[in-house]
Design brief:
- GO terms for molecular function: flavin adenine dinucleotide binding; oxidoreductase activity, acting on CH-OH group of donors.
- This is GMC family oxidoreductase.
- Belongs to the GMC oxidoreductase family.
- The structure is a single chain.
- This protein is α+β, with helices and mostly antiparallel strands and about 525 residues long.
- The chain has two domains: about 290 residues, FAD/NAD(P)-binding domain; about 170 residues, Cholesterol Oxidase, domain 2, CATH 3.30.410.
- Helices cover about 25% and strands about 20% of the residues.
- Strands 1, 2, 11, 12, 13, 14 and 27 form a seven-stranded mixed β-sheet that branches. Strands 6-7-20-21-22-19-25 form a seven-stranded mixed β-sheet. The protein has a three-stranded antiparallel β-sheet with strand order 17-23-24.
- The protein is globular and about 70 Å long.
Length: about 525
Amino acid sequence: MTTITTAADTEVFDHLVIGGGTAGCIVAARLADRPGHPRVALVEWGPDDAAEPRAQTIRRWDEMVDSEYAVQHHSVPQTRGNSHIDHTRLHILGGCSTANTMISWLPFRGDLLEWERRGADGWGPDDLLPYASRLRTRISVIPPTDQNPRLARVIDAATAALDLERVIEWNDHDYRPGAGFFEIGYIPETNQRSSGSNAYRDLLTRASLRGDLTLLTGHRALRLTMTDATVTGAVIADADGAEWCIRARTTVLAAGAFETPRLLMLSGIGDPDVLRAAGVPVRVPLHGVGRGLQDHAEGIVVWETRGPVEAPSATGWDAGYLWGDDHADDPALADLPPVPQVATHIPREPWVEQLLRAGVALPEHIAGVAPNVARPRSRGRVWIDSADPDAELRIDFRYFTDPDGHDEQVLVQGVRNARQVARADPFAAEIVREVFPGPDVVSDADLSAAERAVHQTVYHPCGTCRIGADDDADSVLDSSLRVRGTTGLWVADASAFPTITSINPVITIMLLAERAADLIPRV
């Protein structure tokens, strides 16, 4: 695939895609594959991932999270959550799908019907789920050779303790509470991840060889160029800081839930009060840009075990269980199909960095589970406070601040579920004691305080440029993903989500990208 570092200022592309992550690779590949093969430019801040072995082997995901491609964002101090989390994003072709564990769920019907109810017309299950047949992503069940025996024992304990279905294939039915090994976006024979870049590399390469695709890796978009409210392209910079304009008839932002709203605001599209305070001239007043931030906050329960965990795994985060119905507790949504309330991951080795930071002493052999709030009701925001694109992005997740205390209650329920699982065989037979939160932490208030002090993220920020109804003052996008108040500008990434999906969202992002390629007008 050809990567260039300069282009003539007079060249006009049919489509400019900014952000070569999970969604951006798909959008660029599909646009360039249209009949007539329009000219497409794809701008990615980081390098190509093809020759990076850590990005190819899904079992090495944790090396990518700590790699030179990882950018660690941090929130402002949290009043009710953990202020010490590294919110990792990846600057490399394929984006976060080069570093996540590719847990691959199709979105549940209840999630998508809620999108429609919240004003995202045309984004219900009958509109979006058919795109699953177009995905080039390899989604595999985990074969016995990659199934970890301890995880299998925890699954068996969860089915018994919580009265859950033992699930083999999650994607052959809509949501039912269950436990099992996940379906993963990978090739079991080689452990290669099926990232957005890998899955669509053939289409990208064909377009590049035809001369239809210009891939600009190592380039960063600094701001959009505009004539009045019409977007005409972007100012981009190479690794040495040299800047130039790239012009296009349509521009698609696919830079993710942090960088897409940042780029809009740096270009003068956003809340006028925020823009003026940052010293950015207002071009298009759009109050909702950066608002509506959501994430899956994840707790942790750790036990000492009688011996080490066995070796086999696909990614190390290969199993889990889904519990409850969050819609049933919400009168406005109780008539919709069910969605999980708690989504619990069962890792081969628990992610304990926050426990170590808090001074929790850990024994030699441990096991753990990570219950997360599947449908959080807390909402945060991202914003700029400077016109300098290198200034730190301001992020406030506002974890556990929903007025009814829903998120906190769900976190506590997840811990109580985990304790039930630990009392059930065959998992119970290998447990020595509970290490965290510890057997003396019993009340809801004490469990909440202990978990909120050390909770992690599942790295699923979304909703910062959400789709919404025409009369929704905080919606940034119309149902075609066009940025309101502008001409020639669309968004295709997780920032468009009206609400977070109750499960890992990578496949939903891919489906959104596939549909975006149909919605963006031909030129």
